[in-house]
């Protein structure tokens, strides 16, 4: 299928400040509208699990049940999300995202009804598993940017940086909003609000047809991204990086709880996300030198080094305030790592499978978050919360080894957006 002409960014005006690259991005027709829809649809990703835990724990009185239900949803997402992405590449974003979001919303509504009418516990697992069809609008948005800016690697770097900052923003605001709604309004409010935001955001997003990548069809779709040389190591990097996130979250909650300050854990974790968000926006305004493959190990090395700070803060001071500052600084290496990883995923994904490639990376992150949460929780319970901060450092060190291995794999010929 012939590709439409690449949109040209408005000419750069010198002296317009560090936000100039972002202003140029959103001067492209349709980009503001699809970004608005994307943000609305992506915010519930940080709301659903917290909302489910608070709702189930408050109504059924069991955190174990709440954790098991959300873990089941995570496993279901890891299995279903790549299939939804593959269908998206084959049939187009609009044709797949709307019914997929509708099924996820029905799953959320079913969960609320099961809670309201005191249905058996097994129905909670089935209802929450249905939310696994939630479309990965973050990956779809990156696919749109990759199409619009395929001949402008500097602008694509800025767009990828913005998307990573948006990820951090949604995962920072989502849990806070969910906790507020569930505790201040009524227990089901977080789930219902997330479902409304998801459906509204997806409808706004897919309405912007001019920026949507063309559907490839069954015959035109190439081989699976996982069978492409260099992709498995990148997915493994995402898995290890996800373990950093998962272990850090659980251990920080345990650390705050051990000091009788569990209510402050959300704010402390939000500071880490804020540091990553700010670093992502700054990274997007810069023009890093060298190929992404060589840059990735350096970014992961910086992340590994900075993650030692929370371990030192927890073990040497025991202060939650000092820990918050250490997490703020440590978070600043996260966004550059993820931006560079996603850029490499884009370049190694075969033509016509970009949504699937991006979703595989996200699935790796989710799997790592689940494993990291289990490891961090085990350390916090059987050793100490302070010792638990060794888990994210170890996961980051594993990610560094994997990143070095990924860097040694040459990019496929004709890869997109070379730096």
From TrEMBL:
It comes from the Bacteria. Gene3D superfamilies: MFS general substrate transporter like domains (1.20.1250.20). The keyword Transmembrane helix applies. One of its GO terms (molecular function) is transmembrane transporter activity. Keywords: Membrane, Transmembrane, Transmembrane helix. The keyword Kinase does not apply. Pfam families: MFS_1. InterPro entries: MFS, MFS_trans_sf. The chain crosses the membrane at residues 64-84, 96-115, 192-210, 231-256, 262-284, 296-314, 320-345, 357-380, 386-407. This is Transporter. It comes from Streptomyces ruber.
